[in-house]
Design goal:
This protein is mainly beta. Helix content is 2%, strand content 58%. The strands form 18 sheets. Strands 17, 18, 19, 22, 25, 26, 31 and 32 form an eight-stranded antiparallel sheet that branches. Strands 21-20-23-24-34-33-29-30 form an eight-stranded antiparallel sheet, with no helix packed on it. A four-stranded antiparallel sheet has the order 6-5-8-9, with no helix packed on it. A hairpin with a 5-residue loop joins strand 37 and strand 38.
Length: 1018
Amino acid sequence: MSRNKLATWAVLAAFIISALPTVWAEGSSDEWFYGTPEDDYELEDRDNDGYDDHIIIGYDPDTNVSDYVDITVRIWIYDEEGSQTDFLSENHTIYGSGYDSFTQSWSPTTNGTYTFEAELWDDENFLEDNYTIEDIELYVCSGSDCDDEYDEWFYSIDNTVSDEDADGYDDTATIDYDPDTTCSCDINITVEIKVYDNQTGVHLDTNDYEYTINGGGWDSFSEAWSPDYNGTFDFFVDLYDDMGNHEDEEEFLDVELHAMSGSADETINVENAVLNGDDDTLMNDLAFWAHVEDNNEEGINITVWKKNVFGQWEFFNNGTTNEDGELEFKNVTSGEYMWSASVDGEELVHEGGYAVVDSTYTTGHIGVLEDWDDADDWDDFVVQVPEGNSSKDDAYVEIYDEDETMVDNGTTDDESWGDYFFISSDLEKGNYTHYIYEEEDGDLLQNGSFHSYGSTSTNTNYDEWFEDWDYKTEDTNDDNTDDTIEIEYDPDTDCDCEVNITVYLDVYENETGDWVDWTYAYHTINGTQVDDFAQNWTAEENGTYDFQVRLYDDDYNLEDEFWIRGVTLNGSSGGGGGGGDEDEWFYSHGHETEDTNGDGEVDTIEISYDPDTTCDCDVDITVYIWVRDNETGDLIDWDTFEYTINDGSWDSFSETWTAYNDGTYDFGVDLYDEEDNYEDNFTITGIELSAGDEGGFNQEGGGGGDEDEWFDSWHYETEDTNEDDEDDTIEIGYEPDTTCDCDVDIKVYIWVYETETGDLVDWQTFAYTINGGKLDSFSENWTAYDDGTYDFVVDLYDDDDNYEDNFTITDVELSAGDEGGFNQEGGGEDDDEWFDEWGYDTEDATIDISYDPDTSCDCYIDIEVYVDIFDSETDDHVASLDDDHIIYNEEEDWFVQEWTAGYDGSYDFNVYLYDQEYGHEEDNFWIYDVELAEQNAAPVIDALYVDDGDEGEELSFSVSAHDDDDDDLTYAWDFGDGETDSGESVTHTYADNDDYTVTVTVSDGDAEDTDSATVEIA
């Protein structure tokens, strides 16, 4: 299966969930328009000429779900003749426990009487309710008072420069901006960027970029520009609404840029693997691959060393890569290996690494830079850890940039084609270091460096749309009645390049709104040419149908759509589904439950089916099985299964699913042919299962069973931040918790509504990392834009975007603050913090780590600095330190943390900086291979005891000494007459009378002390 095919299936899975047939999707919730919405509209005379020229249509959608539901409200506008004039559509999120009120407005382009048909569609594309507003007389508005009633502005805008051709000079200016609007609806805007020569004032370039933004979403775009010559340039950026009104502006002056040298990034990557290259079942082949993007590099010299039994590195082997860029040393023995790469005698400074061949030869490891997403930009690092005949899904990977900041980490749990991978996608251009471990906190398998070539495109966020479309019906079975619709369309893009898109066609019954069928097609379009395509659909049954046609870009963003309504077709034997000469269906199906863990309660369902086909040939099919909670309708799990069937044989299959938790479940089973056309389905409902030992499909897990997260507690308080004696800001505090005794990434959404109207005023997303083994407390504040009473809804989602918990705060009175929005008080927004400088000193077994942290906030910021300490030889975690500090802007604030080693050795130190308000990691650095050892204390002689005497007399000698290390001491005596002895107390007899010098030396094996005295012998 190709990578493109895999991506296609991912898109299909997401689409199928939203397009399930009625018997499966209907009934999970009910939605309706509350009250009498046909009376809830206002007419305006905006140009004050005595004639209404604008209608504001209000509605309050409601739901029987206590949580929230995503809906779409579409309004069709017809003139007096019944012809469709225009179409409005807005997406909303509504709450069964809240008051949700929204508006859509419209002005005509010709005078006339209009009818408005409003439809409420749920998130499964089912029509839930509708109403009509009839005979509204409206006139064309004229004059300046007809300007768009919404405001647009740059929520943020910035300019960065970069050296794209790697010649040491910045050559590209990239302007990033997030335009926003007061309308919680789709608004078309234009951003105009003008470029001038800063020295001469000559106008050099103007580009207009069109986007669609929504006040309820985050819209971020970027455009890049490079000059033809070296110079200093000015950039003027203007924002216009869809009526040409100037809304906002920004300028960037004195931007120094150089012309591109034209040189490409020719950095050579050399990557390493341990694998079973010779198919002998042993993971003992040491392999290398040298390349520049997808070009293999021949003649790269690889030198390999192996660690011997004494812990020393000794030369193992070397060689050069072949024409495929490959070099392999087969059947190496187990142990630790180190390697480096060079070309023409010059070392490749960012290439080299470490690899382990395990003693059982059962575990391999591969780390390689790829164009994994087929985006023609080699910036995806992919890791696989083969084990036996499969691959590990729990190997652990860390990736660091040149500043030693971790940019990505995780496990090899991304499944593709039956194997497991870790994929770090879209890494910025630059050099990186990676570590591959057998598991988190496990043994290191591989360490090395690689170079990401970055994205080859400076802006991939293009707009796509349907420039034109049409349709016709035809008779394909010669029965004199039309049975097929052919829909033609010309998609376009603002990119003067090739762009991949997908166009989906959904079919609905006109009278009931029930979903009938769907098909899709992939296309490649170019903004410089006309691209005409067509899709057709043949009805199986007589009826009148509506067709929704949607355009998605290659990132699966919805770009445009149109509807065709009221098309009558007579059924044909050709069948629906957009194609396929043969029919497939479930001939029979069944199910049974069983107790797999022996606890006396059934925990597993076995679903069996016999798919059939009209073709007396081999046909490949795919069966999707969806698992939903019977009470809530929530999707719990899903998986796909591929089979080959034949009409000439009996094909029976079965799959099992084990419950993660006690509950009642529904199962939807869909059959698709080899062209991904929908063919048949069946459902199984109301199955009670208890939790099994291991949940998921076939006891291998199917994507569910995640940990639980919740708000353990929450609180709020209001405060006066602008000192006008009226509270203007709310601080919302909460303590999220998890059942996992591990780090879990979560998102918290905070929604702000006007209490009286229910209108959405503001919202923001906050990301945190929590751990069930410790207390995690966070707070966010919001300042009111205007005086009013507000409600706050706080939602918690896990790292798979599953909804987990929420709480609501109502009726909070706030006055307008100086600057409205989230985290506006006192610089409380999430500013940047970093280590401006750092260093360390050692003395004996003690290290002092010093650092100067700074912040971008012109205010006092509370930070916390953690230090993790590792044994350099074993990579074992040894100890941790932490300390709290208060810093101000970029003032010089030096702090020190001290640590004394418990044993002599070499240590690595990883130092992290966290801001305390948000709990975000802001910066870190590593200190490697620091030797720490206790300084030996030398022994000290306290007293030397000697006596005078006569020749032939036995004399006694002794010494008193101490050692601060309590080392064992030795004592060496020299009596001055050529005789010696050892011991703390000794005796000696002199043969002749004379004066002798007695010397004693006290030693602890590393250091010594000496003392002498004169002895008179008569």
